[in-house]
Amino acid sequence: MESRIKGKVIKIVSGRYWVKNGQDVYVCSARGRLRRTDGIYVGDYVICNIGKKTMSIEKVLDRKNWMVRPPIANVDVVIITVANEPEPDLLLVDKIIVNAYAQGIEPIICYNKIDITPEEEIINVLSQYDGFIKTFRISSETKEGFVELEGFLEGKTACLAGQSAVGKTSIINAILDMDLETAGLSKKIGRGKHTTRHLEIYEIHKAEIIDTCGFSVLEYTDIIETELALYYPDFLDFASNCTFNNCTHTREPNCAIIEAVDKGMIGEKRYERYLKFYDEIKELREKEY
Ligand SMILES: Nc1nc2c(ncn2[C@@H]2O[C@H](COP(=O)(O)OP(=O)(O)OP(=O)(O)O)[C@@H](O)[C@H]2O)c(=O)[nH]1
Ligand SMILES: [Mg+2]
Ligand SMILES: [Zn+2]
Questions:
Q1: Which domain holds residue 156?
Q2: Ligand 2: distance of its center to the CA of 38 in Å?
């Protein structure tokens, strides 16, 4: 007897897909055709054929949204994790924010490891996002800040993102009292390897959270540089006052964004990263054509 079920892909490891339906989890395969086309992502809703001997994914249902690096679908929130160690890469943070907005996903920033971080360093990072992105200060070690974070996540599907070793897996361990593999900094830097090697959805009390490997989003973006500023909520209030309505805010005269930076109303460092990201996207597109 065969039956068809609808479920959610909660884990993918070497070509096998863990599909959850209610309290049951089926380990399925997928036809090459399905794997090749748009792929099957963690977070996808799928239709499976459950037979006596084989269980296979037949169809991937429409996605609300998705990210390509890492490949995950149907998320509400991306938790951009930073810490004092490794040193924060805020250009990466800005890139994840842009890609999240482009997909209709809310980005938030979690400063982890506050138990070993001087207050000035935390402020130095979080103040750059003040007023337009939700930020949290947490410690997976002492569990400080988790009541607020978990409260915010209630009812949502969230995905962890950020550099390797900032403590993404440790956050899941802290919430769930689990013992997933984490690693020390020295070991990682030496071998340049990620500790987490697969994507998986964990159910927390009233939310779902996806662990990912430290990743970069720089290779993939379908945003064109002239539209980049649309994904900078801190720029939006000013942009309508630029002289040119197609202002790229890079070097035009009477650019309201550049004026706002001069007056300290937009952070200078954040603006400099915008210019860098702008040039990177432009270069990448020029190479493609
Ligand atoms: N002091 C302190 N150390 C932490 C905290 N959170 C994580 N760490 C340590 O940071 C190191 C890296 O943590 P992981 O959770 O493996 O980092 P990750 O972001 O999952 O790394 P990848 O899986 O490689 O992407 C480990 O040695 C953790 O013990 C924290 O809040 N405080
Ligand atoms: Mg990890
Ligand atoms: Zn402008």
A1: 66-211
A2: 26
